[in-house]
Input
Amino acid sequence: MARHIYVHNPFCARKCPYCDFYSVTKTSLCEEFYHAAVREAGILGGVISKTDGTNPLTDADGRDTIYFGGGTPSLPDSRFICELLDAVRKAFNTASDAEISIEVNPSSADPGKLTEYLQAGFNRISLGVQSLDDGVLKTLGRLHDSKGAIEALEKTSKAGFTNISADLITGVPGETLDGIRKDIQTFKDLGVKHISTYSLSIEEGTPFFEKYKKTIEELVPPEEERAMYHGTREFLNELGYETYEISNSALPGFKSIHNSSYWNSCEYFAIGAGAHGYLGDMRYGHRDDVRAYIEEMNTIAPDAYKAFLEGNESGLRSLYAEERLTVEDKMREVPFLRLRTAEGILLDEFKKMFGIEFEDVFDKAVKSNIEKGLLERKERTLRLTRSGLDLANVVIEDFL
Output
């Protein structure tokens, strides 16, 4: 079985006002953090060396994946990143064809770093562009401008990367569908193979929430945001990008295998403060505390880590179990995850995993949403209709 590993870099040069992912701007702990992460990778490798990762539903396309996210993984010295990647690859004995991704901020897309990433084994870059409109970038509080973003894309290609992804945020005040189309066309012209388009979400606890909480509905009217979403999907499809998940589109052969492992209910390991994983019946995480992570990973005994993965978390400061899933919980997670995808719910896969027909478990929710025109059956699949995409959260709630 393929193994999937998520590595979280918790450091950023500056916190974006809309972001609710864990990150800190105090980089004095960076070297200590990466030494601790190398040790965690080694411990994990020893703990799981005699076992195979199991994947409850389906296993993407069967390839190992490693994903360095954050935070801003391109901020630290590339030596730390490359040393950790080497430790992870050795610990998990990843296959030579593994998909190995790193998120890069255009403001820190240094040519030397990019070359070192490629030489270390990274073969996929995800650039956090967010927009090529300087006004939108200013609203989002990004460190780069449109010129810097385009130069970062050019540097990435020049360094030798052929699997390049770029992020766009839609629904930002002042943004237009024509502007988004222009950005996407530029991405295509610059060789971008994968495009993630995320609607701006105002999350509690962020500066954006404090700034806009009283006027959220006025930022971009829902009907305008939905028109922008569908117009974006249609233009991506016109250019040859297949929208395979609500927020992700790719040219043929360039879907994100790592992200697909999440939507396919695959297990994945987690490394780093703020990282979250899923093994067996447990969804688990590392607390949002760099210092606690460093102290625990430098002192934890391999047996204690193994005991945690087996269900005993007594006395741990950083690692914790978020929830333990019953069979019923795992059944409910299938529509929660799979309805995000273009394929939808694979009924034969569900029956193979749980020994029961999906519609025997969720009969009422299926019938209700088909009658409303939000869900459609295509042979042995169930997926959202165009109208269902606009009410995806409502539909999914019916299955929970």
Remarks:
- Residues 121 and 394 are 41 Å apart (CA to CA).
- The longest strand covers residues 124-130.
